[in-house]
Design a protein that fits this description.
mainly alpha; D-Maltodextrin-Binding Protein, domain 2; about 35% helix
């Protein structure tokens, strides 16, 4: 959202959430107007008609949201990454010690 604010020059207020599902619930309920999320996190809700995808921060179309606009094409500075990571608590054993 900060990238959108800077690229489009719009006023936004940051609303922190513990996770994507909490933010999605707030958007679907009308408590907040908009959110950014990874495509895998919202694709099912978009296809179910519970969320409306307004655009993606990319130069390329997504195979998961083919009808979605590419905001990255018209707003220089608005480029999302393709990062999906797996995280665990710091004391999680390494794979070699799990056996």
């Amino acid at each position: 959202m900060e990238m959108l604010r800077g690229a489009a020059g719009v006023q936004l207020s940051h609303v922190p959430f513990k996770g994507s599902s909490e933010a999605q619930t707030q958007v679907m309920g009308g408590q907040i107007p908009v959110m950014f999320d990874a495509i895998p996190g919202i694709a099912a809700q978009v296809k179910a008609g519970k969320l409306r995808a307004l655009g993606i921060a990319s130069l390329e179309r997504s195979p998961f949201l083919l009808r979605c606009r590419r905001c990255g094409a018209g707003l220089p500075g608005l480029r999302g990454g393709r990062w999906i990571g797996i995280a665990a608590p710091a004391r999680t054993p390494s794979p070699s010690s799990i056996g």
